[in-house]
Amino acid sequence: MRVDVITIFPELFEPFLSTSLIGRARRRGLLRVDVHDLRGWTTDRHRTVDDEPYGGGGGMVMTAPPWIAAVREIAAERRPRRILLSPQGARLDDAKVRDLAGAGDLLLLCGRYEGIDERVRELVVDEEISVGDYVLSGGEVASMVLIEALSRQVPGVVGLADSVVRESFRAGSLDFPQYTRPRVVEGLEVPEVLLSGDHGAIERWRRERALERTAERRPDLLDPATPEA
Ligand SMILES: C[S@@+](CC[C@H](N)C(=O)[O-])C[C@H]1O[C@@H](n2cnc3c(N)ncnc32)[C@H](O)[C@@H]1O
Question: What is the CATH code of the structural domain delimited by 2-151?
Answer without folding.
Answer: 3.40.1280.10
